[in-house]
Amino acid sequence: MKKNEVNTKAEVVESDYAVTNVPLDKRKASIPIFVVLLGFCFLSITMETGASIAHAFAWNDLILILVAGSGVLALYTGLMTALGARTGLSTVVLARFALGSWGAKWADLILGATQVFWFAVQTAYFVELFIQGLGLSESLYVPLAIAFSLVMGFTVLKGNRGLEIISYIALIPFVYLVFAVPTMAVSAAGGFSELMQIVPDGVGEMTMISAITSVIGTFCSGGTNCTNWTRYAKSPLKGFFIGFAAFFIGTVIMVGTGMLGGLAFNAIDMITVFFELGIVGMAIVVLILNIWTTNASTAYAYGMAGAELFNDENKSKYVFWGTILATILTAVNVYGYFIPFLTFLGVFIPPLGAIVLADHAYNWWRKFPKMEYVTFKKINIPNLIAYILASVCAYISNVTAFFIPALVGMIAAFIFCFICNKIYESATGKHGRPDYAENAEFLYNTEK
Q1: Contact at 8 Å (CB) between 48 and 290?
Q2: CA-CA distance, 352 to 409, in Å (whole number)?
Q3: Domain contains 430
């Protein structure tokens, strides 16, 4: 495309501005966006993270893990949501700026695969609770896993709007469950001071770095995608505080609830906690509604990721095959790999979001062209190299238990982004970022 031409493909503006900048006059108030993101954090499986960690640490360590993990996650999410508000774009589109049109496919792949795995883990978790709660034979696990997985996934294909009603119905009893568990757990322990004195049986089975990384891993994939909502925020500052507050509060509540339950009963999972509290029946009813609605949204997400990955406007086939894959993973009880999965997310996803942030800071801080004037390169070579190096740093940090891998990966992404771009520009006389038309209009331009 010539520099004075406009990319007409980007001129097609969908009603939700999926591939274009959300106009400033279409931005929304902060509170509704905050409520959506806070509700996004109310995910039943995240209580399981807290219970698993509580089995390996005493009270003082749990507080440090919860605050550090929630703080890093909230900071990461806040920066991503601020960027979404500043550009009016989603992470998937911003990844094209940072990695190129082909390089961004990695973002589609890793985020889509993450959603498939989340779907399987949540379904497996519920089936285990269902079987134990009703006293059924473990031999029924596979057929029940297949049945629940297919029904939850294919709900999206049917476009069942009644699912929204179910989600609202499930919200109140789920919030009650979230606050009832810690209250009952403290009471069962004999009081808060007695709870603080408990030393779990599993102390030493998990490192503090792994525990913090697991907390970050609970929502880092969702935090990366929160630009889908905050691109409607009215300013970057408001976008930052919306994301930071929602994810810090949500993570502390959800993971903290699991921690209190797990510590009080020396339990490694929430299923045991529900049994000890005598609320298995209520938990089954509440969680089937919560997980069903959550998995429907998850299936939609991996369907969209598949459509983006293969440049296909029809997401239905990717919902179908993603659900089949998730069903297979559920049937083999992928729930047993829950903590390693969270560790993987906490190591490799933050560098991905950070390279998007770093690219914006390096290339687009002063002015940002509107999407219809941009011509994307297939691969942004310096940024792709920077992302790989940052991921390696995060991985080494994790295996050597040095500092917090997610934070190491994020810092490394910024450093390598600037270094790699400088080297690339000096060596080739070119820049790695996309080109834009000479007559381009800018979303903002501070160079004038």
Answers
A1: no
A2: 9
A3: no
